[in-house]
Amino acid sequence: MKQKLLFHFFIIFSLCSNFLNGAVKSNPFSDFEKVPLAGNSFITKAPDNCTEKITYLGLENWTNSETIISTYFKVENAGNLSIAIKARFTSPDTVIKVTVNGVSQEVSHSHASNFLESIAVGDFNVSAGYVKVDLQGLTKAGDSFPDVTHILIAGEAASGFTIFCDDQDQYIWARRGPSAQLHYEIPTDNNVSYYYNEVTVPIGEDSVGSYFMANGFQDGYLGFQVNSDTERKILFSVWSSDLNSPERVSEDDQLTLNCKGENTEIGNFGEEGSGKQSYINYNWQAGTTYKFLLKGEPDKMGNTDYTAWFFASETNEWILIASWKKPHIENHLNNFYSFAENFIPENGYLGRKAEFANQWIRTSEGVWFPITFAKFTVDQTYTNNQRVDAIGGVSSNNAFYLRNGGFFNESENPETVFSVATPTESPNINIDDLPLCHTVVARSPIQEIKLYPNPSDHFIKIQGLNNEVHQYKILSMSHTKIVLSGTTDGNNEINISELPKGIYTIVLYDQNNTNIQALKFIKN
After folding, report:
1. In this predicted model, what pLDDT tens digit does every residue of 29-59 receive, in sequence order?
2. I want to staple 99 with a disulfide (CB 3.0 to 4.6 A). Which of 93, 134, 365, 458 is the partner?
3. Tens digit of pLDDT for each residue in 169-214?
């Protein structure tokens, strides 16, 4: 049985329960495994006025009887599953409902308490695999339903190996779900200049928070995202350094922009290495196949140029995303891979899937080679048995695929190598006709624009705008919400005092509403 020891709470009972004839009563839940809501739970039904949150302490601010909180864990055995909850009932006369596999049991609590208590729910019959436990409030005399820290499990079903997130350092990653990757075998030792991939996301597999990375290489990646219900992006990122803070990368090591597409927005990224980011807002659709093309070649002056294109199926044209120059290194393309992941922890209970087909590489001599072998790999969330709902394989239409999220039970061994039938027709692309720096209007628009102070408590000032009036938008860290917008004044100073603490991105636009640059800042 997997040991789950993270936080040690004293189980506090009333005096009459704790002591009997002067002796401490044994804990009836000592053999139960403790599933922390902090790393394994989600708000799966949320009304408009939802106040509930999953924090590092578990479920908090539970006030609405329409809200459903779902906790997931995996059991090795089928059979009886005994369930209890560890909770703090701050309101008297509270009744909640606990549901497993469509069977519900109610838990009543008559008195208010500021202490955590372990309370039996009942027994349920479950199959081997992932189990979902739903909590829903029914009645309460006070303002809130209980704060819940753990689901406690025991019985025949929990007697074998169980899987759930038990490492508080992994809570955010487990709630996002395991990342799944495909690493491709390249059938040539010659220098590779182009990498081509066709990606289809099946209908219904494009949940918000999904990132389907099509063309990964040694210095970055190209793919598309679902940022919100109304926003989707085509994203091309290139690393400049292993440092996680862009401001720590020396000016001499910074990537520079050769050019960008007309509607491309650009900026910096950090936290996973540092580099430059370029993207277009594009309402791509599930069920449609999209083409991605990447180029990487030395510029013959000691640097490397990386360029990315996206084929818009709706308009039947190649769109330039951007071309970046990486200094002090001469590379062709290598280390080809794809991945599927979720970047919004609150949506980690939703699934996603992508198919990767008709992949080719083109050598610097102009010869196309098909890609037919891929190795399936996973991240530490999976290998550490915090969560294991990720698979790869080959679809019925001869495409590699990746699937993750949603707490499904289908499995595939990591490090498995898959193969597809060899494609017979290389991409019909006239390389010379692709839009590039000599054909696009926007050339190297990055100015020496900086923010200071950064971090800041009240104001940020933009240096390098020459006192011209510019429009700006400030985005949340996940780029899913505009939290502030306006125009700069003559001093190029922006009041950020009302923003909550956190990391933000400010996007600057010129008087023609063309994106100039995107910069990250920290609000203290």
Report:
1. 889 999 999 999 999 999 988 999 999 999 9
2. 134
3. 999 999 999 999 999 999 999 999 999 999 999 999 999 999 999 9
Are 319 and 392 found together in one domain? yes
* CA-closest candidate to residue 161, choices 6, 385, 382: 385
Going by the DSSP 8-state scheme, the letter that residue 146 receives in this structure is P
SS3 readout for 270-307: CCCCEEEEEEEECCCCCCCEEEEEEEEEECCCCCEEEE
Q: Which domain holds residue 390?
A: 179-433
CA–CA dist 129, 100 (Å, integer): 13
Strand 53-55 relative to strand 103-109: parallel, antiparallel, unpaired? unpaired
Separation of alpha carbons 234 and 252, rounded Å: 28
Give residue 4's pLDDT: 41
Q: Which residue shows structure tokens 């910096």?
A: 268
User: CATH number for the domain including 147?
Assistant: 2.60.120.260
Query: CA-CA distance, 404 to 497, in Å (whole number)?
Result: 39
Confidence check: pLDDT of 434 > 90: yes
**Which residues face 251 on adjacent strands?**
none
The set of long-range contacts for 488-493, using a CB threshold of 8 Å and a minimum separation of 24, is 488/462, 491/461, 491/467, 492/461, 492/462, 492/463, 492/465, 492/467, 493/459, 493/460, 493/461, 493/462
Same domain, 454 and 416: no
pLDDT for res 164: 98
Same domain, 246 and 362: yes
**Cut 0.70: pTM above it:** yes
Question: Considering only CA atoms, which of 257, 265, 334, 269 is closest in space to residue 297?
Answer: 334
Nearest to 357 by CA among 184, 224, 203: 184
pLDDT band at 21 (very low <50, low <70, confident <90, very high): very low
Assess contact for 276 and 238: CB atoms under 8 A: yes
Angle formed at CA 284 by CA 200 and CA 202, multiple of 5 degrees: 30
CA distance linking residue 442 with residue 326, whole number of Å: 19
* Kind and range of the H or E run holding 14: none
Give a yes or no: residue 7 inside a domain: no
